[in-house]
Amino acid sequence: MTTSTKAGRAGPAGDARGREKLWGPYLGERQWGTVREDYSPGGDAWSAFPHDHARSRAYRWGEDGLGGICDEKQRLCFALALWNGRDPILKERAFGLTNGEGNHGEDVKEYYFYLDSTPSHSYLKYLYKYPQAAFPYNDLVTTNRNRGRHEFEYELLDTGVFDDDRYFDVTVEYAKASPEDVLIRITAENRGPDEATLHLLPTLWFRNTWSWEDGGRAAAPRLYSIRGPAGTTALRADHPTLGSYDLRCGGRVPLLFTENDTNTERLSGTPNASPYVKDGIGRCVVDGEKAAVNPAQEGTKAAAHYTLTVPAGGAGSVRLRLAPAGSSMPLARDFDTVFRDRQAEADAFYRELTPDGASEDEARVLRQALAGMLWSKQYYSFDVENWLAEHGLDPWTAPGRAVRNGAWFHMACDDIVSMPDTWEYPWFAAWDLAFHTVALSVVDLAFAKEQLELLLRDTYLHPNGQIPAYEWNFGDVNPPVHAWAAYFIYTLEELRTGNADRAFLDRVFQKLLTNFTWWVNRKDPSGRNLFQGGFLGLDNIGVFDRSAQLPTGGHLEQADGTAWMALYCQTMLQIALELVRHDPTGYEDHVLKFAEHFLWIAAAMDHTGGDGLWDEEDGFFYDVLRLPDGRATRLKVRSTVGLLPLCAATVLRPGQLAGVHGLGDRLRRFVDRHPSLAPGLAEALAGAEGGPRLLSVVDEKRLVRVLARLLSEDEFLSPYGIRALSRYHAGHPYTFRADGTEHRVGYLPAESDSGMFGGNSNWRGPVWFPTNALIIRGLLNLYAFHGDDLTVECPTGSGVRMNLYQVASELSTRLSRLFLRDGSGRRPVYGGQRKFQDDPHWRDLLSFHEYFHGDNGAGIGAAHQTGWTGLVAPLMMLFGTLTPEQFRAGPAARETSGPGGEGTR
Q1: Secondary structure class of 181 (helix, strand, coil)
Q2: Residue 690: per-residue pLDDT
Q3: Cα–Cα distance measured from residue 519 to residue 529, given in angstroms and rounded to the nearest whole number
Q4: What is the pLDDT at residue 8?
Q5: Is residue 606 exposed (0-12), middle (13-18) or buried (19+ Cβ within 10 Å)?
Q6: 3-state secondary structure 417-432
Q7: To the nearest 10°, the Cα dihedral for 180, 117, 120, 505?
Q8: Residue 870: which of 454, 252, 448 has the closest Cα?
């Protein structure tokens, strides 16, 4: 893999210590409809704060906008606002359907793309496609609401507003002359056949904190007009903690000022305290209400009002500069030079990351994937104790009613966080974030490490050791993948820089000890080392909602939950072995602890009786339903649940265990005492003399049987990766009857017909990147142990035999194929959308979806989920660089094992 010491330092960011990331793409795409902003008695966040209220109601915890930036604490925000002369409202934020409006759940109904970003955000590029006809808000809601789960979603292209190419491509670019001096270039290109007018309103505003501080009596920061250099229009922003900034706008244009305060008159009929409120600029421009903006040219929200008349096929542009107040740098000086330099630095940065021999299209996919990752950094503010107090709860009083997240008073979030999707999931999700850090580590290593430590801070991690899952329910359970991500990042940094950051590894390890204890105490209630974590991020993959009370009573012993814990043990063991080299007395006990934990879990999974997770007849792992009377039933759904045991495979380097006092004796005693439970384990631990050691919950015989299903094109292997559910269930749905009700799981390659766990969740057939990445990781580690001696048919029944490295490479190729043009020039991710396939202004714009159609590869779900779909970038980097021989040749090669393969370090 090509390495770079510039990760996090591209552009001028390296010129000022600690300030290079003060300004970035931290402004949200959606704040309305979130739990944070829900102050309704019923807890229905979507209806409590709908899109229709967003332009008029001041937010409590954050801000949103189109293609915007803000400072790291979101005190001062900048974004686009647009009006085509026909829309009923000013376009200030992306529109989409709520969970109740969409036939497949919530869904953004806009087209915008994150095209470029350096780690320091010294250069940023964003594209928004804005129709010239009236935006079809009502049509999108009504048509989708009337469609059923089995019908396609009604998309913005389907409405006809882009017919005849009557739209603007609005591109906003940011280039930093210094960490606090941001140049802004906005370009509007008219793709239509006729001249068209666009009202372009670059908008600057303060996040409203004053309404909530000091009982609403706090002084607000101020924006006001100032005299700018000749040929410019300027305003100043004064903030008590951020300081003062000037926004200089090219040309003499009107400035419109209002307050970022709620229009209570519109929302509730209550008179406003001031005539100038949040939606004042929109009312002035769209409705002609001149009195809605402040003639005194001051406020807490302001916009420069440009009116561009753009000829057919032509373009208009605007230049602005946001810099510390009083800066002598005029708007025009070095403007083009700064942009040229920042773009050249960005090009050089990504060229260094791109494998030699990559095609132009492969380089494009890699760059846009990583740019999307960097644009997904969002400011996240949520003081749960204050929020609960505002809902009438305090930590010392027993609640008289159920309030969401009522047990999480300790949480106080005020950070930049990598979001799964900036519109559909504008809040962190615990297991998503671990995958984000793996992808981010190849482009912004420092930020990746910060993110891993974030959820383990005392302001996030529950005092009982639980990691908060996500905003809708912090107490839900996500897979424990943080130790794996931490160890991967640690080894990657050592490879790239020679720096083994053991302090980082130790900090993470100490916090994860608490979390591991929570898992053992809370999620293995029977003490049999068979875990029942709940839905574990896999939403509706099972027969039942695994986070809810089972209709049969009893509990589930989960194959995936137990496999996750086996992987957790393996990675904690690896970390402890790394730390024990430098502190034998402090970590020997931890090495022994996690070795024994893993052995017990592996032994539990090895159990072959009628109520075990392994089914000898099918050659597959299943969840087991254990009824209150003690009877047990295997739930024979062939899904990711039964594939995850493959992922719990970790290789230890020769001699790594030898230096730990007493470890060998304790492992041998375990194997001697339980020979019937762990014969395969004993063989693996022995390994070849002087060779690597494998920790795995599947022996070679079972591995081959599971791989036969994994690599069957009639089951899991699709042209675009591994499906979440076997295609076998298309003709053979699994059914289970309980209390007179039939529960059914059938193969569904696209959207689910089940409303279980939300409208747009679907693990019943599509391809998902996180589980694919972990399967590849497992295969690489298994290859590091078995080498070229173990081969399997790939695809099953084809007669083509591959070693496990080649299988992993084949899976990576199929995943990358989702985004790359095929022989006919089509990208599978865009399915039958002809505009994206054929139009030169659309076909190279990539969306990194939440998941993908299990048969044709079309993107489904959230459209900007580069969070974990961004894993395509490190996969392309790995398999575009390393050969199997290099992978097995030495530590330096093996430690770049894509998303998590540790080789035999």
Answers
A1: strand
A2: 61
A3: 11
A4: 37
A5: buried
A6: EECCECCCECCCEHHH
A7: 150
A8: 448
Q: Which residue, 635, 768, 779, is CA-closest to 706?
A: 779
The backbone region for 231, taken as left when phi is positive above 0, alpha when psi lies in -120 to 50, beta otherwise, is: left
Report how far residue 395's alpha carbon sits from residue 383's, in angstroms, rounded to the nearest whole number.
13
Burial 449-474 (b: 16+ CB within 10 A, else e): bbbbbbbbeeebbbeebbbbbbbbeb
Distance, CA of 380 to CA of 365 (rounded, Å): 28
Mean pLDDT of the chain: 91
**Which of 109, 497, 68 is CA-nearest to residue 303?**
68
Beta-ladder partners of 128: 112, 170
Under DSSP, the state recorded for 220 is P
Share of the chain above pLDDT 90, in %: 77
Average pLDDT score over residue span 635-642: 97
Taking Cα atoms as reference points, which of 576, 575, 572 lies closest to residue 588? 576
Long-range pairs, 145-148, Cβ under 8 A, ≥24: 145/101, 145/102, 145/103, 147/103, 148/103
Write the CA distances from 54 to 129, 138, 206, 260, integer angstroms. Answer: 21, 16, 16, 11
Least confident of 13-22, 453-462, 794-803: 13-22
Least confident of 6-10, 137-141, 597-601, 710-714: 6-10
DSSP-derived letter for residue 55 is: T
Q: What is the separation of C-alpha 309 from the centre of its chain, rounded to a whole number of angstroms?
A: 39
User: How far is Cα 611 from Cα 481, in angstroms, rounded to an integer?
Assistant: 27
- Mean pLDDT, range 53-71, rounded to an integer: 98
pLDDT for 679 beyond 80:
no
Please report where in the chains the tokens 């991710």 appear, as a residue.
829
Sequence-distant contacts of 783-788: CB under 8 A, at least 24 apart: 783/808, 783/884, 783/887, 783/888, 784/651, 784/692, 784/887, 784/888, 784/894, 784/901, 784/903, 784/904, 785/649, 785/651, 785/684, 785/687, 785/692, 785/693, 785/694, 785/696, 786/700, 787/888, 788/884
